[in-house]
Amino acid sequence: MEKKSLIFYLLLVAGFFILIYLIISSKILDNLDIFNHVNFFLLLIAFSLTLLNIVVKIFRWRYLCKIYGTEIDYNDAGRIVVGGFFVSGITPAKVGDIIKAYIMKKKFSLPLMDGVASILYERVFELLLLFLVSLGVFYVGLSAKNYIIIQMATFIVIFIGIAYIFSDRILNLAQKFLMRTKILSAGCEDLKIRKIPPVNALEVFSLTGLALGLEFIRFWIVVLAFGFDMNIIHLSIFFSLAVLIGLLSQIPIGIGVVEGSLAVFLTDAGLPGYYAMGIVLVDRIISMYFVMGIGLIYYKWALKAAMEEPG
């Protein structure tokens, strides 16, 4: 087994153990009756927001491909985006999302680096928005642990910003190194990111904000379904911080880490521990775990599509 694969499985197992420990320690297993009083109509609305979120991401991917000169219909865009959910989710920092760029190159002849650039726009804008919302922790009160998270997130955002500004120079050096080591051939595709016009970037940023906003609203509705009326701004801040912690942990889909962080934030806000864990588990089931499930259905298609020659 390769070292990278071993690390992946170790992180995944660690995440599962963390999740199991949190479930047991929260005493939710002794208070399963809390699910008897959940408003299932509100949960249905929350689930509908997950579906709407997927639609927005499909539209965003189609729009990005169009900007880079490749028109694809909603059916193809949907299969590519959904097929990438599973691969992205099971890899640290969502690096598996690169499969979307390979599919676009193989099936629709979109230059690989244009596909990579599209993914970068999605991820950078998402991370930037999460970071900006998480800064609201100053509004709700800053604890030492949150301060550390903000510092780490700030470092990541600054690093990504610098890497983007100097992306052409960095990729040019990388290409020369790869050609010198004969990993790439002399006639290979240039490693150069084509930046989109500011107006288009703003539209992509807005679509990313809409997708993230739907997640905030969904989480708020799940909390309402359990009978708690909390400030949606506070919940959005908690959600953003938990996702950032999950990304920093490098554990696939942040399993155990995101759930634990979010439950701690809700408990600090006054909710009983078992209610906090119940809310978090339900929200993750109808969002992340559901998305991973439908992504798994399309996983084999995505993998096959990434290996096929265009035809």
Give a topology summary.
Layout: H1 3-25, H2 40-67, H3 74-89, H4 99-108, H5 112-134, H6 137-140, H7 144-165, H8 167-180, H9 198-225, H10 232-249, H11 257-268, H12 273-307
Helix pairs in contact: 2-3, 2-5, 2-9, 2-12, 3-4, 3-12, 4-5, 4-12, 5-7, 5-9, 5-10, 7-10, 9-10, 9-12, 10-11, 11-12
The secondary-structure class comes to: mainly alpha
- Number of H- or I-type helical stretches: 12
Average predicted local confidence, pLDDT = 80
Main beta-sheet annotation: none
Give the count of structural domains. 1
Q: What proportion of the residues is helical, as a percent range?
A: over 70%
* Beta-strand content: under 5%
Question: How do the SSEs run, as a string of H and E?
Answer: HHHHHHHHHHHH
Cα end-to-end separation: 35 Å
The outline comes out as globular
* Radius of gyration using CA atoms only: 20 Å
Number of strands: 0
Ranges with pLDDT <50 over ≥5 residues? Answer: 181-187
Structure write-up:
- The chain is mostly helical and 311 residues long.
- It has one domain (38-307).
- It is built from twelve helices and no strands.
- It has helices spanning 3-25, 40-67, 74-89, 99-108, 112-134, 137-140, 144-165, 167-180, 198-225, 232-249, 257-268, 273-307.
- The radius of gyration is 20 Å and the shape is globular.
- The model is unreliable at 181-187 (pLDDT under 50).
